[in-house]
Specification:
The complex is a heterodimer of chains A (355) and B (295). Chain A has helices at residues 42-50, 92-102, 107-121, 136-149, 166-183, 194-200, 218-223, 228-233; strands spanning 4-13, 16-26, 31-35, 57-62, 65-66, 77-80, 154-158, 186-191, 203-208, 211-216, 240-247, 250-253, 256-259, 271-276, 281-283, 291-302, 306-313, 316-323, 333-338, 344-346. With 355 residues, chain A is of the alpha+beta class. Chain A has 2 domains: 4-233, Rossmann fold (3-Layer(aba) Sandwich), CATH 3.40.50; 240-346, OB fold (Dihydrolipoamide Acetyltransferase, E2P). Chain A has a 6-stranded mixed sheet, sandwiched between helices. In chain A, strands 13-12-11-14-20 form a 5-stranded antiparallel sheet. A 5-stranded antiparallel sheet of chain A has the order 15-19-16-17-18, with no helix packed on it. In chain A, β17 (306-313) and β18 form a beta hairpin. In chain A, α2 (92-102) crosses α3, α2 runs parallel beside α4 (136-149) and α3 crosses α4 (136-149). The radius of gyration of chain A is 24 Å and the shape is elongated. Chain B has a single domain, classed as MetI-like (MetI-like fold, Orthogonal Bundle). Chain B is built from 12 helices and 2 strands, in the order αββααααααααααα. Chain B has helices at residues 2-39, 57-63, 66-97, 103-118, 121-132, 137-144, 158-186, 190-199, 203-231, 235-240, 252-262, 266-294, and strands at residues 42-43, 52-53. Classes of the chains: A alpha+beta (355), B mainly alpha (295). The A-B interface holds A 50-52, 71-73, 77-79, 81-83, 85-90, 98-99, 102-103, 146, 150 and B 189, 191-192, 194-201, 205, 209-210, 213-214, 216.
């Protein structure tokens, strides 16, 4: 269990700069998730920590050691790959034992450790089988077993669940979380799935175009997004974001006016992007908190426990979350209450939060 | 009934079109095969109008002939040595041209290294004869750097001839292995090497634990195919040493040729040819079984 310190990390591939000075500090035992869209540099960052990519600039510390010049095996890390990367010709047992065999650990000790980890992951009956005969979920477990057996200081996970079906993904997600609670190792976990990021992380680092947009606890990045990108990226359905103009006692979005008392940081005439999560748009009823708007429903997405009601205000499309028990139909004119206490405002020019 | 007839007709149409081709190919394959086996059971075929049937006497004579056994041993040495040389050089070069270097340079190296395979055996043989000539470039170079005092007769010296032949055969045959292995290497996922690197494997560790097991099906198939081809290889041996000096590099294929077209003993030639056929057939069965398992 070690802390990880990434300082001003840069990476250039050929002529293209893909990482522009990344700073991340991960406490010992923390579960840190790097999340962002494809090509944001999250996997490159992870691979640089692993030692699979050279470092163009900056420093990486694992514990108190600077690891820039060290080979992967000298860094005290173990990695779980997206495609599992199990050795096809080796049995599950030998896949897990391989690194220990290479470090010339006595056979009995290897046997004890492999069996112990197999027990934890519930893969003891698979030990004599070859990877080709295993299902996706089983392979994933073996890949994790191979990492755990080494008892590394740091675990690195590179989109480990993206090849699994939705149900299995949810199950494995919980298992990884449980495993972390049990082993308490430091983890860096890369994913493009914000649900995975929210559920697993102690700390989320949201990246875009080789830069960090925001880092913090899941709660912090979700409820306190500092940029338009973070606001749009975290949360499902996406936060409603609409271009608006500030008026003396409210906002105008295309032709719809929303009246509310302006916070001090907004100036009349200013262009802003108004953001509101679909949870904060509710069906209007007596005593509802928020501004009342009437709109025609375009589309209903039924998710069982809740419905996503799509509607338009002028040119802007918004989504409201309603209870799954309410019966709504396309074309209904519905009154919604927008809770302005949870509204966000962003600068359309630089995407920064106005507050 | 008419329906059934129509049905058969419909199904058999494609075979009907294939029939001429199948007939010709079948005849070209089976008639010579049959004839060779038949010749081996007669005496003085072709040269005499009415050869006498001698049964297995030709085989009896052959198996008691020291020259046959010496040629068999030479064939084994030549085949095993060549296949080993092909595998060794082919693997090393496949690994080299698979490395991550400038793509243009890589293409040039790949093209250059495949050249020995493109030349016909005659060109290869003549070139190597010139190179290995006592007054050739190789002797000159070796003398210049001081490795030898006197020029060596690489193809004429009984103690060197087989070695020289193996070098020529290796040079000529490695590109096939190299190309086959290269395509095999390219299909190995890079993550396996990365996983091995993180597990602590060095260059040889990665080679033994990732490359070799992943290439194994290719290695087995290609080595068997090479074994079959080299076992009956004729032109390269005949054109470089002609089986000599004496009978030092005589292999079964040159022996067949010598019996047939030098001594005009076609019956004996057929007998040797049948013995080659039987051994090649055994290798072929192994090869086909391996290919079948892949499917």
């Amino acid at each position: 269990m070690s802390k990880i310190e990434i300082k001003n990390l840069e990476k250039i591939f050929g002529l293209q700069k893909v990482l522009h000075g990344i700073d991340i500090s991960i406490a010992a035992g923390q579960f840190c998730v790097l999340v962002g869209p494809s090509g944001c540099g999250k996997s490159t960052t992870l691979r640089m920590v692993a030692g699979l990519e050279t470092i163009t600039g900056g420093e990486i510390f694992i514990g108190d050691r600077i690891v820039n010049g060290l080979k992967p095996k000298e860094r005290g890390i173990a990695m779980v790959f997206q495609n599992y990367a199990l050795y096809p010709a080796k049995t599950v047992y030998n896949n897990m034992a391989f690194s220990l065999q290479l470090s010339k650990i006595p056979k009995q000790e290897i046997d004890r450790r492999v069996k112990e980890v197999a027990e934890i992951l519930d893969i003891t009956p698979l030990l004599d089988r070859k990877p080709a005969t295993l299902s996706g979920g089983q392979r994933q477990r073996v890949a994790m077993g191979r990492a755990i057996v080494r008892d590394p200081e740091v675990f690195l996970f590179d989109e480990p669940l993206s090849n699994l079906d939705a149900q299995l993904r949810g199950q494995m997600r919980a298992e990884i979380k449980r495993l972390h609670q049990r082993l308490k190792n430091t983890i860096i976990y890369v994913t493009h799935d914000q649900v995975e990021a929210m559920t697993l992380a102690d700390k989320i680092v949201i990246m875009k175009d080789g830069k960090i947009e925001q880092q913090g606890t899941p709660d912090d990045v979700f409820h306190n997004p500092q940029t338009l990108f973070v606001a749009g990226f975290m949360g499902s359905p996406q936060m409603n974001l609409t271009k608006s103009i500030v008026k003396p006692n409210g906002l105008i979005m295309s032709d719809t006016k929303i009246n509310f008392s302006l916070p001090k940081f907004l100036n009349v005439g200013q262009e802003v992007i108004f953001g509101i999560r679909s949870d904060d748009i509710r069906l209007f009823s007596e005593g509802s908190v928020g501004v009342k708007v009437d709109a025609k429903l375009d589309l209903i997405e039924q998710l069982g426990t809740e419905n996503l009601a799509h509607f338009s205000l002028g040119e802007n499309r918004l989504i409201a979350k309603t209870s799954g028990r309410t019966s709504l139909k396309n074309g209904d004119i519905i009154s919604f209450a927008i809770d302005m206490n949870h509204a966000y405002f962003f600068d359309p020019l630089n995407g920064k939060r106005i507050k | 009934m008419k329906n059934l007839f129509n049905n058969i007709n419909e199904q058999s149409t494609p075979y009907l079109f294939l029939l001429p081709c199948l007939l010709i190919l079948g005849a070209l394959l089976s008639v010579p095969l049959y004839k060779v086996v038949e010749y081996s059971l007669y005496d003085n075929v072709i040269v005499e109008k009415n050869p006498t049937f001698v049964g297995l006497k030709n085989y009896q004579d052959l198996f008691t002939d020291k020259a046959y056994w010496s040629a068999t041993i030479n064939t084994i040495i030549f085949t095993v040595g060549s296949v080993f040389g092909h595998l060794l050089v082919g693997t090393c070069l496949a690994l080299l041209v698979n490395t991550d270097i400038n793509p243009r340079a890589r293409t040039i190296f790949r093209s250059l290294l495949i050249l020995p395979w493109i030349f016909t055996a005659v060109v290869v043989a003549v070139n190597w004869q010139l190179l290995l000539n006592p007054f050739g470039v190789i002797n000159y170079a070796l003398r210049e750097i001081g490795l030898i005092d006197e020029p060596l007769d690489w193809l004429g010296d009984p103690s060197l001839a087989m070695w020289s032949l193996l070098i020529i055969s290796t040079w000529r045959g490695y590109p096939f292995i190299m190309v086959s292995f290269l395509s095999g290497l390219q299909s190995i996922p890079i993550e396996l090497y990365e996983a091995a690197e993180i597990d602590g494997a060095g260059f040889f560790g990665k080679f033994w634990h990732v490359t070799v097991p992943q290439l194994m099906p290719v290695i087995y198939g290609v080595a068997l195919l090479d074994l079959i081809w080299t076992f009956q290889l004729f032109p390269l041996v005949w054109l470089t040493t002609g089986g000599g000096p004496g009978r030092v590099t005589e292999v079964l294929s040159t022996m067949t040729f010598r019996y047939a077209f030098v001594n005009f003993q076609f019956s004996q030639a057929s007998t040797v040819a049948v013995s080659i056929l039987v051994i090649s057939a055994v290798f072929t069965v192994f090869y086909l079984r391996n290919e079948y398992q892949k499917i």
